[in-house]
């Protein structure tokens, strides 16, 4: 096993080693070079992660913060820009204006940076999904906020900045397809992301799951013009010839006709790719066949729960009655690796049900199981409903749960909601046990992933999956030890 793992690590290193031509960068900064007299102002885009993020399995897929490159593309040339990405860079604030992107779980940390920068006389602009759902809160920590999709309003914000007329609040609007411009990936310089070729072709989703924030707030389903997408694919090919494409769309195949055109483009370009799919798409054998023949290496499937009543309780209607186990076998036959995304802590979960889920999934040969405790994000219908019943802590993201034992969660946020059948500690214990068992690195699992990889002509990708799986299970074991210690300290009580 140790030999297989070192082989895998070697292959990954080779995958990542990239000696292609890259823009000149100074400790990871991308500076605009087309200015004659120097920029009037230096604006730094910032992507912040959480200190505990290293213990989250998502950290295994570090990828460029593409939304910031989208904004960089529409920033007037009189403003010099740079990027600080905590995934890859030392956080160092050198500039006049700092534009942070905000996700809920990092909001508290960003606010602390923002307050310090403003106290030092710098300007701070906040935007992103959390700002969109909690604008009043964000305004207390910024000179200006931008809600919603920002590329159409961003040039105005920049003009106001340059003329000293910055307003407190700007309202963005869903970018129409024809205003979508190609992302310039040179913005990321020579940063070594694990999946550098991340891109998206669509925005929005046609479903309305009650825990989902973006589908409620970020506009209707839209598609990127194919020529714009093609330019991005070409640039990514130039910059990272060895990397596979990673589509980060909410629902790439939501519009089937457009999806078919994207797949045809990928076939023509001979590019290998991974993407997320909904469970109903995954169970459509003809669609998966088309994906395989278009170069699909693997899919992440939004399974959420193997129990239909749980899916119904969060309005995930398209998951009900789907033959998931059969579809996994069929995908594997086609050489597609499957990562199942599951939530733990849905309303009908009980300790007995989770034990049954484990027995059920142990017979389903997914290459990777990504399990997370349900998080109730502000802006979701689930949050509104639970808040009105007093079942979720108001503004939990600003609390100090992170330093409590609750941070032993796989995602490092406390259990910020009440569950009828679990104490917080039990929920963590059950989730981590499930991860440990389902992602176990035994001989059979390793052989299976390699077999699927061989079938798909993608052994390097299989190696990457195995490395992610091994890291996930290692993290779960570490966290489980801590949960067990905490439980022992509480005299075995699951409080
Ligand atoms: C790709 C993606 C990821 C990727 C990469 C994220 C990244 N940093 O780029 C990965 C897999 C790493 C990831 C991880 C996670 N994600 Co995610 N992810 C997405 C997804 C599917 C697409 C994001 C995207 O690229 N959209 C396209 C761009 C153009 O849109 P945008 O991001 O909204 O950006 C626009 C505006 O928001 C605004 N804007 C954004 N930033 C800024 C900054 C400034 C200064 C300004 C002015 C404007 C602005 O302008 C942009 C251009 O119009 C979204 C769903 C979605 N559709 O938003 C979820 C989403 C953002 N993720 C979510 C979650 C929960 C997570 C995780 C916590 C999951 C987990 N449990 O670990 C982690 C956290 C990681 C992180 N650093 O935030 C939630 C966020 C909920 C919340 N309230 O914060 C979302 C909304 C999914 C959902 N359906 O609920 N994610
Ligand atoms: S399918 Fe995914 S993106 Fe669409 S509403 Fe549900 S969770 Fe959100």
Q: CATH architecture of the largest domain, please?
A: Alpha-Beta Horseshoe
Helix coverage percent of residues?
A: 25-40%
Order of strands side by side in the largest beta sheet? 2-1-3-4-5-6
Chain oligomer state: single chain
Could you give the count of β-strands? 14
Distance between the termini: 38 Å
What's the pLDDT, averaged over the residues? 88
| Unique bound compounds | cobalamin, iron/sulfur cluster
Largest sheet: 6 strands, parallel
Question: Radius of gyration over alpha carbons?
Answer: 23 Å
The name of the CATH topology of the largest domain is pyruvate-formate lyase- activating enzyme
Looking at this structure, what is the CATH superfamily of the largest domain? Answer: tm_1862 like domain
Our count of domains comes out at: 2
Count helical runs: 18
Which characteristics define this entry?
495 residues, alpha/beta, Rossmann fold, pyruvate-formate lyase- activating enzyme, 6-stranded parallel β-sheet, 18 helices, disordered N terminus, binds iron/sulfur cluster
Any overview of this molecule?
With 495 residues, this protein is an alpha/beta fold. The protein folds into two domains: 32-171, Rossmann fold, CATH 3.40.50; 196-489, pyruvate-formate lyase- activating enzyme (Alpha-Beta Horseshoe). The chain is 39% helix and 14% strand. The strands form three sheets. A six-stranded parallel β-sheet has the order 2-1-3-4-5-6, sandwiched between helices. A six-stranded parallel β-sheet has the order 7-10-11-12-13-14. Helix 9 (256-269) links the parallel strand 10 and strand 11 (273-278). The protein is globular, with a radius of gyration of 23 Å. The two termini are 38 Å apart. Iron/sulfur cluster (SF4) is lined by residues 205, 207-209, 212, 215, 250-251, 278, 302.
């Amino acid at each position: 096993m140790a030999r297989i793992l070192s082989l895998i690590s070697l292959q990954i290193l080779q995958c990542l080693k990239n000696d292609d031509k890259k823009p000149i960068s100074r400790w990871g900064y991308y500076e605009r070079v087309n200015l004659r007299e120097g920029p009037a102002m230096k604006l730094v885009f910032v992507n912040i992660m959480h200190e505990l993020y290293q213990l989250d399995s998502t950290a295994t897929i570090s990828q460029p913060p593409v939304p910031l490159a989208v904004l960089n593309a529409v920033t007037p040339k009189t403003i010099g820009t740079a990027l600080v990405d905590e995934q890859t860079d030392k956080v160092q604030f050198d500039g006049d204006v700092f534009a942070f992107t905000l996700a809920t779980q990092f909001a508290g940390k960003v606010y602390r940076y923002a307050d310090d920068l403003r106290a030092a006389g710098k300007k701070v602009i906040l935007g992103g999904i959390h700002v969109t759902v909690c604008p009043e809160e964000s305004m207390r920590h910024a000179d200006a906020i931008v809600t919603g999709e920002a590329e159409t309003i961003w040039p105005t914000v920049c003009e106001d900045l340059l003329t000293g007329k910055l307003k407190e609040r700007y309202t963005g609007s869903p970018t129409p397809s024809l205003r979508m411009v190609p992302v310039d990936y040179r913005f990321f310089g020579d940063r070594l992301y694990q999946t550098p070729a991340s891109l998206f072709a669509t925005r929005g989703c046609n479903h309305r799951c009650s825990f989902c924030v973006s589908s409620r707030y970020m506009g209707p389903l839209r598609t990127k013009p194919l020529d714009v997408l093609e330019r991005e694919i070409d640039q990514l090919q130039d910059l990272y010839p060895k990397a596979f494409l990673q589509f980060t769309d909410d629902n790439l195949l939501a519009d089937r006709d457009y999806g078919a055109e994207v797949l045809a483009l990928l076939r023509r370009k001979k590019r290998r790719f991974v993407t997320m799919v909904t469970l109903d798409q995954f169970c459509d054998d003809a669609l998966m066949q088309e994906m395989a023949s278009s170069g699909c290496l693997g899919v992440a499937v939004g399974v959420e729960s193997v129990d239909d009543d749980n899916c119904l309780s969060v309005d995930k209607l398209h998951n009900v009655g789907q033959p998931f186990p059969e579809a996994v076998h069929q995908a594997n036959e086609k050489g597609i690796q499957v990562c199942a995304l599951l939530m733990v802590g849905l309303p009908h979960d009980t300790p007995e049900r989770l034990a049954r889920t484990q027995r059920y999934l142990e017979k389903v040969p997914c290459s990777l199981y990504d399990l997370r405790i349900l998080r109730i994000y502000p802006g979701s219908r689930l949050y509104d409903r639970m808040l009105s019943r007093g079942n979720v802590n108001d503004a939990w993201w600003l609390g100090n749960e992170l330093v409590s034992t609750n941070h032993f969660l796989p995602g490092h946020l406390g259990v910020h909601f009440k569950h009828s059948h679990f104490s917080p500690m039990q929920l963590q214990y059950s989730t981590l046990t499930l991860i440990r068992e389902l992602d176990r690195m035994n001989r059979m699992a390793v052989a299976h992933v390699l077999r699927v990889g061989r079938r798909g002509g993608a052994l390097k990708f299989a190696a990457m999956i195995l490395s992610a799986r091994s890291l996930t299970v290692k993290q779960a074991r570490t966290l489980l030890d801590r949960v067990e210690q905490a439980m022992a300290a509480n005299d075995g009580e699951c409080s």
